[in-house]
Amino acid sequence: MTTTGQPVAVELESPPPPGPAQPPPRRRFGSIRLRGTLTAAVFLAPALITFLLFKFIPMGRAIQMSFHEVRPYLGDVWVGFDNYTRLLSEAEFLTAVWQTVILAVGQTAGSLIVGIVLALLLEGSARHLWIIRTAVFLPTVVALAVVAEVWRVLYYPGEAGVINSLIGWFGLGPSEFLNSSDTSLWSVMAVGVWRGAPYDMMIILAGLAGVDRTLYEASAVDGASIRQRLWHVTLPALRPVFAILITLAAIRGLRVFTEIFLLTNGGPNGSTEVIMTLIYKLGLERSELGIAAAGSVILLLATIALTLAVQIARRGRPSRKAKR
Amino acid sequence: MIRGRPRARFVTLALAAVLLGTTAACGSGPVQTEQDPNAVLEIWVRKPPDSASAATAKTLADAFTESTGIPTTVTAIFEDFETKIQQAAAQQDLPDIVINDTAQLGTMAGQGIVREIDPDQLAGSQDLTPGSWDASRTVDGKTYAVPFSAQSFALFIRKDWREAVGADVPTSWDELQALAEKFTTEDPDGNGSDDTYGYVVPGSTKRGYTSWYYSSFLWSAGGDFLTESGDGYTPVIDSAASVAALQWFQDAACDGTIVPDAPTLETSQAHPLFESGVAGIYLTGPYMMARFDENLGADKYEIVPLPAGPGGQASVLAEGENVYLMAGSANEAGQQKFAEFAVSVEGQTIGMAGDSDGNIVRLPVNSQVAISEVRQDERWQIFDEVYRDSSRYVPIVPEWTPILQNSAEAFNTIIADC
Amino acid sequence: MSRTERFDTALGFTSSRHPVTRILRWGVYVVCIVVFAGPLLSLLINAFTPVSNPTSLTLIPDTVTFDNFTRAFDRGVLGYLLNSFFVVGFGLLAQILVSLSAAYALARKKFPGMRLVLLLILSTMMLPEEILAIPLSLVLADVPFIGVNLIGSLFGMIIPVAAWGFSILVMTEFMKEIPVELEEAARIDGAGEFRIFISVILPLCRPALGVIGIFGFVMIWDQYMLPLLVATDTAQYTLPLALRTLRSDPQVGLGVLLAAALLALLPSVIAFLAMQRQFMKGLTSGAVKG
């Protein structure tokens, strides 16, 4: 995902494993390569050790839990794949998967597009832009509990509701928004885009900061219009940024939970049910930790599969190299 | 994934071995704890930290310490209380006492984190109302908690609105529905715009709110979730009476007498709708009085028992809180003493906290306690009468939560589908 | 002046002097503010009203009161705020250092197993924390290999957030963009790894540093599950715990939640403004960068 088509480690045949715990095997290496690996290990150690302790070990335990009926005080009971089959046979499961995918795709794409537009419009070093960018960024720093309340007010389904009054001027509505199964998923998605776009905007802005200004000048000399400049200079330069944004947003999208939990809790009529709200209902709310764990292992596997698929698909394409 | 290079696979395997190796030690069986009759009792209450009710819990614990000499600590946790319990159980470091909803009984007993209780061994157990004991027994007839507080629900009605539309206090469902319609259409707040509704309904599926709210109406209409048959239960949610009751619910949602955001409304979002004058009829508990008195004004609303429904009588949801004696305590004798103290006349009186909003005992479970002697506010009597005369707990089944959730999903669909 | 400004930004929109563009520009600004900040601010104004109507937004409250703030303070919000500051201060420092260091290895070093490491880092973001809560609490109570109990200590809320996949990956992506020639020049001059890292790579990462600083701040500031697991006493609570509690507390109204949220918002805005400085430096240095 992040290794934009660069065949970094792929050609190496017998490399020593990384990680601080593993002493390098006794073999003859080019000293530079060995030194590079050692340096990498040292620099990676803090992150990997922290992840090992606070992410991988709990993850391992969660995987273990998924094969048990978890009873902390009485001792766990091995149930094999029971938790998985119970979850997969749940009628709502496939719907939830489908809705999760729609939501993830919609929010990722929507946030990215709005984020690009915002970044392009608000790029610059003038003081007033600081303030405007801060205002735009507010949705990201306000507590989610408040964001949910804001949107409940905006979406209020009566004719007097804020958005209903607005669209009323154009002769539309009133819409039920969150409270009808026809519109709820889109309404939730709009909240996600509203909150996600400023996120993307910030990263794209940082990416724009790194674009070589002489290229702009050169394209102007060549007589390119601003549109051509955007298309041929700016967007290609931002490609690695987009790659990481899409990867991260997709991962975030698949495990979306709190927004929906606060806005609709999966309702009405299950129309906004996503994988995590279902796991919460079937597992955590009923204190069935084994089932919750099984659900999240499925989620984990699906996310990893998706990530690898994207990686392989990208590797298959002709490598476009960033300047290096 | 990594093109099957042997090294990478080795790393993966090694990592997996580390993970499994470090986790296999978890999840051993229950532990026998050495007993110490003077060990500190750790008490958890499901109340907001630093709130008036958390302070009352502290007062109760202090009075207990004074009378028995057993030291206590009180921890108030509100959101994600169950997560904290799960955590404590996983660490095998449970608190000694937990005061929590009666609805948690089945789950906690099933996980083996609460101790079984012999009511006959509990001093003062005969003073507790028989109904309250029902909420402390699991389906196999064993008792896993000591009842501590009870509550029921009644209609909160905007009195000024009712007078403005010239209606009387509703005494039947038809009158109630007529009142709701008048609230919706006759501009009871007189602001000139059509922005009011009849009922506040917390109809979100969260924590099963839709079902929790509507169960009182369902039962009063003669419907039910389950009925006892032989050794077990059979669902009767499709009986004629149940269907009629739900039809009534759907009609109210569709003709606009229920607030339009009901299908996603949580209780915390529902309260403001009543106090800010969006809707004028709200079936809720006595714990809301203090807040509505302050934010709306005690003179602006009245509390009325739910009228008898088509089922011939009112049958309102009863619930409450239990004292749970948690497993693995180092002071089992102290746990029992605390439970005895909590349900005693003294303990219950402290917990009721007069008329203040800091009550942790809503209605006393001890029949020796006269509400009127502790509380001047007569509205409590209404809740007490409802609780004694026309309320019922949810049926005792192995676990109510799945039924609550599934029915909440179904009811939620019914009111969202117009 | 106008020559360089024209090429300062991709669109040239914010620096154009054309009168039509100017008007259009301010139109765009107003729309942006109204859409993204407007609803939030008009709801937060309800922190000053005794009873807020949850069906409409106001800009001017009927009656102004500070009761909601008083109540929020009664609920210990000030103490939670201090805890949040402590956690975010040390947490963010650790997180930035760890991210920089890991990203340096991932972006600038060639080593075997890199893809695996990247996948592992990505995988840390794939499981929702609600699921990991119980296993994580076991780890916190008895950290493997070290045997320390972090439950009940603010450090238990700090150490686990020191490594965050998002920061590492974003930083890596930006570091890759730094021309390798600069590094090689320094190496030829005899600079060691840490010298190169500190004096060559780091200064060029400014915009990215701003990004991970801002997002890291928000991430740690919003942490909910971890403080919930670690805190054994309300004295250790952080603000998000208080916000969730106030949200569902039937004894207080929406106003108290909004008051607390408003208090929580101010530090974030200040942090955001401060970190934007990194951006600005990046923006201007980017213009001269060859």
TrEMBL record, chain A:
Recorded family membership: Belongs to the binding-protein-dependent transport system permease family.
GO cellular component, one term: plasma membrane
An individual GO BP term: transmembrane transport
Residue ranges with Pro residues bias: 14-24
Protein name (Swiss-Prot/TrEMBL): Carbohydrate ABC transporter membrane protein 1 (CUT1 family)
Residue ranges crossing the lipid bilayer per the database entry: 36-57, 96-122, 129-148, 185-209, 230-251, 289-313
Species this protein is from: Stackebrandtia endophytica
InterPro entries for this protein: ABC_transporter_permease (IPR051393), MetI-like (IPR000515), MetI-like_sf (IPR035906)
Compartments in which it is found: Cell membrane
Spans annotated as Disordered: 1-27
Topology of this chain in the membrane: Multi-pass membrane protein
Ranges where the ABC transmembrane type-1 domain occurs: 97-310
CDD domains noted in UniProt: TM_PBP2
Transmembrane helix among keywords: yes
Top-level taxon of origin: Bacteria
Keyword Cell membrane set for record: yes
UniProtKB/TrEMBL annotation, chain B:
Annotated TM spans: none
Signal peptide stretch: 1-27
Pfam families: SBP_bac_1
Keyword Isomerase tagged: no
Taxonomy, superkingdom: Bacteria
Keyword terms: Cell membrane, Lipoprotein, Membrane, Palmitate, Signal
Coiled-coil annotated spans: none
Protein name in the entry: Carbohydrate ABC transporter substrate-binding protein (CUT1 family)
From TrEMBL, chain C:
InterPro entries in the cross-refs: MetI-like, MetI-like_sf
Membrane topology, record value: Multi-pass membrane protein
Transmembrane stretches, start-end: 26-48, 80-104, 116-138, 150-175, 196-221, 252-275
Pfam families per UniProt: BPD_transp_1
Origin superkingdom: Bacteria
Keyword Endoplasmic reticulum: no
Compartment annotation: Cell membrane
Family as reported in the entry's similarity comment: Belongs to the binding-protein-dependent transport system permease family.
Name of the protein described by the UniProt record: Carbohydrate ABC transporter membrane protein 2 (CUT1 family)
